[in-house]
Fold:
Amino acid sequence: MGAVTLIRTFPYSYGDFAALEKLRHLVDEQVKEDGYNSGHCYSGTWSSLNPGLDIRTEKIFESVEAARNWMVENLEKFEPLVAVLARQIKSSLIEGDSKLTELTMQLKAVVSQRETEPYRIVKEAKSAALFKTCKSCGSRLRLQHVCTVDCPLCRQNLLVTRRDRLIEERLVKQEKKLQAQIQKRREALLKRSKKEGIPDEELVWVVGGVCPS
Ligand SMILES: [Zn+2]
Structure:
């Protein structure tokens, strides 16, 4: 069985009980959505983790990226989701800038398409045929029981075609390009806000887990 460290961010509001309940609610909703999208099986999404949310506020990470790296190194497969705090550029700074908003929306669309590609591939394969023979191990598989693009027996690729790989490559390329543009724009905005003495940072929840697939 493989695993994917899947991380998402959620808005932070000053940490009283209601704010934590709100975070739990938002995370719950996302887990439900993942379960719905993946058909409730070990799909490398949040719905394949043990239930619960472990909120850890003792340390604040310097960036979302730093929190992500910590999670990749420290979290264990199947553990409930963990939420930590990280600093990020103030969202009002981003939202007030139409160019950055536009770029962020484009990136979101590309990431979401890339993340849901495996579901599309599985869905399409299921609607095209009842059985598929794995090229690696030779097993004849009933697609009804297949949840991911890999063979459930030998873990090698079962469903991803050359066309799917090209789509993936294109999406990765787009994602990198948009990330670079966003980074550049953020740096320009930060420079401007520092010059004008505007506070430019806020806290954000980074929630993640090592999801079996
Ligand atoms: Zn196989």
